[in-house]
Amino acid sequence: MRKLTKYFIFLLDILIIVFSFLVVAKFKTGTRAIIAHYWRSLIPYSLIWIASGVWGKKFAFTEMESGSDLMRRILKSNATATLFLFILMFIFKKFHYSRSIVLGTIMGVSGIEVFLFIGIYYTFRFHKENKPYAATGFVTRSKEMEDLQAAKFFLDVDRQEFSIPSISDEEYIPPFAQSIPEDSVMVPLFQDYLKNERELLEFINDFIEISHFRKDKSLVLDSETYFNIENEAAKSKHLFINLHKVNDFRRINRYFIRVNEMLEDGGVFICRGQTITQRRKFFNKRYTPYFGVILYGGDFLFRRVMPKLPILQGWYFALTKGKNRALSETEILGRFYFCGFELIHKKEIDGMMHFIFKKTKEPRQDPNPTYGPLIRLKRRGKDGKIIYVKKFRTMHPYSEYLQHYVFETMDLQEGGKFKDDFRVTSWGRVMRKLWIDELPQFINFFAGELSLVGVRALSEQYFGMYPEEIKEMRLKYKPGLLPPFYADMPSSFDEIVESERQYLLKKAEKPLRTDWDYFWKSVYNILIKKARSN
Hints:
By secondary structure, the protein is α/β, with parallel strands linked by helices. The protein has helices at about 1-25, 30-55, 65-90, 100-130, 145, 185-195, 200-205, 225-230, 250-260, 275-305, 310-320, 330-340, 405-410, 425-435, 440-445, 460-465, 470-475, 485-490, 495-510, 510-525; strands spanning about 140, 220, 235-245, 265-275, 340-350, 350-360, 375-380, 385-390, 410-415, 415-420, 450-455, 480.
């Protein structure tokens, strides 16, 4: 794998050389003549450039200590290559070579190398550091996501955000302390630790029986540093409060997993974080709504979009060290559920969302949960073959780990549709409305895994809910991009099953005619009646 990575960097460097040369030639008069005159020289030029890079170890990303170390190696290797090239030009009397072409190509290659190589280096480093705690990939390969049969619903595109419900209004009593201990942490919290956090104290006191927690089993910090909890013994604490916002935690999952290990089963973790909604309000309040919108837009691109893109992701973590992240409330909740916690309650206090969580299980072992712009869904295909249907992600990161939470807190509309699902992003609602999220399924179509018209591709869970007769009928044909749902518009699960049964019976008799009829019925309902799938 390491050799493949190095060969890829070699190839990338050659492409950078060719690209830089073509750009410089483009801005000179007589581009075609320049290319015809210089293209042979690019071969020894590239070999010298790569050889100097190998000598200067600028491709040895795994041996570097920092981005500045990589920068020094790039400058050292490129300066050596430049000196060697000019010596060869002098020896072979190539004085007719244009200085602007030669120097322009060298400067262009050096500039692109600095940008790309440092970005790649920090991306590799970020993935290596976060591998045990969920790395980021272009395609999400989360088992939780693959097995999810996401429910679609009618969407209001004009609505920018949905409120996230709290889960309970009942006071939580920890399972390990049914009686009030003599050394309760309640008095120190009120008189010392949180004496300047009166509203937070009231919030905690409303939803936790705080008197049941012992002082020697409690820990209160205001720090984002992992070191402060690294050496705490496993299951040694009943209560942990961190007053520092989670947006500054360098490796959030790693931190939450360590907290999980530190707490006894049923233990409580209280923390705070700034959501993107609160972040937008902060910008509008501080810089006025007019300038706030502009500045927040730039902040959104830098802190929400940039961390999800290759190369730019590396630069983001190099510049920010992972601090002051822009996190949606959904992502914060999803990360906690991923790490083995469940929400007791939440409340916004002074422009910051405060959470009370309890430890309920061990952290998940999913190595690649959530950030990729593409997701794949594990589905049953023809003859029972497992296929992976591709889609664009339209939900906030870590939304898939909130499935149980959503079932507990949200109402269902007719036909089993979630009402106002907060997990869908504002741009995701637009993508779903315009069917953009479905476009990657054409990859499955051209791969021969899906047909244009056919029954819906189902997860194992939903497939198991179908009658045996329908299961056998379904496995005879490929799933389709346009299921019978759009033609018949059923409103319940039983009606969906009956719709598919009728389609399959007709398809068995007249396959082409049936698909033709269902295709045009579906197109009419989608375009004219604004049909949406559940």
